[in-house]
């Protein structure tokens, strides 16, 4: 009986210890200007049911008093809580968060947060340029609070403007302004400059990142060498385009022309062949068909025909032209049809009659 009385409290204590939820971890603040967001992580594999979170805050000097905490996010499922509306920039606070689920609660994870020390300073925005003769007027918008008011309402700020010629990034120059507008001069006329701006506060030891690099060209009289270079470029463009078009048109005309197969098979350039004289560029081919005869009389006629052909070929192009005007029997050159007929006739007449 006595053992039972002691066993139950021990079992209940052990169950409470082992069944308690783990608290959130990797708790951190995303704080820029007057935006204060607490972010944390939690291992959801540690529970088989839905888990919610509760986040609270209090002033650092009253953190030991549980009743002084104010609930900012109550039973939320997101792993973040926005404290921007409640915390003052110059205050010192204690923030805490815990996990909850099915009547179980984890331990609190607490951290100290002082906005004017821990919050980052954001960069300016809306950078604009007004170029002039060898000068630039730069204007921009200072960092803003979550209530869309200038950050100069909560801290003192100055602005640093870096500028350089676009192709001389290593030669940066810097001007400091106390207002959101400044003028850079003297600059080179008709020259492209790149600029970037940041904000800083010496009393609070804060410096913002620089804005994204932007480039603009100054006004003024252009250098003589740039004018001459532009004129030279125009002249080259005006002369190159017509020549290119003429060459392209000539090439397309030549490529569309169809040449005879005898010229295309020649190893010489087709254009040079077109420029030759007609008697040099034409080739005449004569074909003579002679029927081989079995008799001695037919063989003599064949030899005679071949001799006439050789003599006709040696005589050159003039002999060929005369041969075309004369009859086939005079020149010894026959067409395919006449040659066939003559060969057939020769064969018929040259055969001897059989003696019975």
UniProtKB/TrEMBL annotation:
Task: Specify residue ranges for compositional bias: Low complexity.
Answer: 297-306, 314-336
Q: Where is the signal peptide?
A: 1-19
* Transmembrane helix found in the keyword field: yes
What domain of life?
A: Eukaryota
Q: Name one Pfam family in it.
A: Interfer-bind
Q: Name one GO molecular function term.
A: cytokine receptor activity
PROSITE patterns to which the protein is assigned, alphabetical: FN3
Keywords assigned by UniProt, alphabetized: Membrane, Signal, Transmembrane, Transmembrane helix
Q: Does the keyword Transmembrane apply?
A: yes
Q: Where is the composition biased (Polar residues)?
A: 344-356
Region feature Disordered, mapped onto this chain: 297-356
How is this protein annotated for GO cellular component? plasma membrane
Q: Which residues cross the membrane?
A: 224-244
The Fibronectin type-III domain sits at 123-221
Name the record gives this protein? Interferon alpha/beta receptor 1a-like
């Amino acid at each position: 009986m006595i053992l039972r009385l002691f066993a139950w409290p021990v079992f209940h204590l052990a169950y409470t210890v082992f069944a308690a939820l783990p608290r959130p971890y990797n708790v951190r603040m995303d704080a820029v200007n007057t935006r204060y967001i607490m972010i944390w992580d939690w291992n959801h594999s540690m529970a088989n049911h839905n888990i919610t979170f509760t986040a609270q805050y209090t002033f650092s000097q009253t953190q030991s008093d549980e009743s002084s905490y104010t609930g900012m996010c109550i039973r939320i499922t997101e792993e973040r809580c926005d404290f921007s509306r409640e915390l003052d920039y110059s205050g010192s606070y204690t923030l805490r968060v815990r996990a909850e689920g099915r009547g179980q609660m984890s331990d609190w994870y607490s951290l100290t947060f002082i906005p004017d020390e821990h919050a980052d300073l954001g960069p300016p925005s809306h950078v604009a340029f007004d170029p002039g003769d060898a000068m630039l007027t730069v204007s921009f918008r200072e960092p803003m609070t979550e209530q869309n008011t200038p950050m100069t309402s909560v801290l003192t700020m100055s602005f640093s403007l870096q500028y350089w010629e676009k192709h001389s990034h290593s030669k940066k120059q810097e001007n400091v302004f106390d207002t959101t507008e400044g003028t850079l001069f003297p600059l080179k006329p008709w020259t492209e400059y790149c600029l970037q701006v940041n904000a800083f506060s010496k009393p609070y030891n804060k410096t913002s990142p620089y804005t994204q690099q932007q480039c603009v060209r100054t006004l003024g009289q252009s250098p003589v060498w740039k004018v001459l270079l532009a004129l030279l470029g125009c002249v080259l463009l005006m002369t190159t385009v017509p020549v290119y078009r003429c060459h392209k048109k000539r090439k397309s005309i030549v490529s569309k022309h169809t040449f005879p197969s005898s010229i295309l098979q020649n190893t010489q350039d087709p254009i040079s062949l077109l420029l030759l004289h007609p008697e040099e560029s034409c080739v005449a081919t004569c074909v003579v068909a002679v029927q081989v005869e079995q008799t001695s009389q037919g063989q003599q006629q064949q030899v005679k025909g071949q001799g006439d052909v050789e003599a006709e070929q040696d005589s050159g192009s003039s002999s060929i032209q005369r041969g075309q005007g004369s009859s086939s029997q005079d020149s010894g050159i026959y067409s395919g049809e006449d040659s066939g007929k003559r060969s057939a006739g020769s064969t018929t007449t040259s055969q001897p009659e059989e003696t019975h």
